[in-house]
Design goal:
Elements lengths: L1 H11 L2 H8 L20 H20 L9 H10 L4 H28 L8 H23 L4 H15 L5 H9 L6 H33 L6
Helix pairs in contact: 3-5, 4-5, 5-6, 6-7, 6-9, 7-8
The structure holds protoporphyrin IX containing FE.
Length: about 220
Amino acid sequence: MNRIYQFIDERLHLGPLISEIANHPVPDHANLLKTPKAIIYCFGGMVFFILLLQVLTGVFLMFYYVPSPDHAYASVTYIRQETAFGGLLQSVHRVGASAAVVMVMLHMLRVVLTGSYKNPRELNWVVGVFLLLLVAGFSFTGYLLPWDQKAYWATTVGVNMIAGIPLIGGFLADALRGGSEVGALTLTRFFVIHVMVLPALLTIFLAAHFFMIRRQGISRPL
Ligand code: HEM
């Protein structure tokens, strides 16, 4: 392993980069090994961990899921009942989605209570708002995918609420549904948004979020 690392390092000089990323000291007030109160500073990291879990379980689910009205429900049933660990994977993915929303809320609450949204971190708060919308978007689009009664009607209600947005609401709702009613096109669109569009946007916004945290450091306690 050492020789492989040296071969790569001689050519790419990764040493300083890795040391910049890995040898960054954690301030005492955010260090769980120093104080249990630091747990509130770990909420953001917990959200990130859950999101990684969602990617992992989501990729496995995609091997069997079929995004068409004829097969979606049957493929989810097949995943749950026939594939190895399929029931576990689907449950972790479903519970993880709720856990992500709850943890993002707790993370935001911590940022508000410690005043960490203030100068110089306003921009990171704005990036955070987009992250919140993205996490909500994942839940909204993912909910339709099992294509059962609850999924169908929850999406119908959700898209009708979007239609209520002044000026652009009607256009947005039609674009999401692919017509005037939830149907085959809606399922395809929600699937593509869920597994392609949102992950790409999430990667970009998370990179911006983490870059700013590294540049500015974690805020000090009040
Ligand atoms: C995908 C969702 C998110 C992830 C993975 C994430 C991750 C993180 C992480 C790891 C930190 C470092 C400190 C900590 O964990 O508390 C952090 C800090 C921060 N986050 Fe988030 N975050 C997310 C969503 C949000 C949201 C929704 C907001 C606000 C609207 C937000 C605003 C901030 C701010 C202002 C900081 C700097 C706090 C400080 O310096 O004390 N984040 N985030």
